[in-house]
Amino acid sequence: xxxxxxxxxxxxxxxxxxxxxxxxxxxxxxxxxxxxxxxxxxxxxxxxxxxxxxxxxxxxxxxxxxxxxxxxxxxxxxxxxxxxxxxxxxxxxxxxxxxxxxxxxxxxxxxxxxxxxxxxxxxxxxxxxxxxxxxxxxxxxxxxxxxxxxxxxxxxxxxxxxxxxxxxxxxxxxxxxxxxxxxxxxxxxxxxxxxxxxxxxxxxxxxxxxxxxxxxxxxxx
Length: 221
Prior knowledge:
Blueprint (H helix, E strand, L loop, with lengths): L7 E6 L3 H11 L3 E7 L2 H11 L3 E4 L10 H8 L8 E6 L4 H10 L3 E4 L4 H12 L4 E2 L1 H10 L4 H11 L4 H11 L4 H8 L3 H15 L4 H10 L4
Parallel strand pairs: 1-2, 1-3, 3-4, 4-5, 5-6
């Protein structure tokens, strides 16, 4: 794949200044680096301020509540339609790959990637495609399939919800109205609203649309 002649607006997020400088130098004029960040909180702030097309995101970094790169993505979940995240890390551990993709990143490559390959990956992610280093693609396929890893990752978030909240979440994801859910579960519309509000808060989501996508990604609709 050849990369586009159009400069992509990107933000580089990594807690090592030397790596950020080296990456900026390698990419040169092929992209427009609109900002850099070294911590979770700083990253979320500059991403919201600059609204880049693509964020090059390290997986392990300080700040926030310890969630690293995955936490950055979660903090910017409401921007995922316009801002795409591409993880670039020294780690090729399955848990790291799955956590950041589960959060909403569109790709994951290791820092051994060549400059041309990285530019192509930036273009692909900006266009909405998913990009993974070859060895890592298997982790993602396994995690979104029926492997034990998928169950481990899925349960961590689902365990925050009560059985009734899971029922409501599934019906919302299937397109039911609040009135239809109330009728289906023999509860009041007000109670449905309360359950939906709790589900969104626990999963750190901001809309019915995000909740539906969250459920579809985990194949629990």
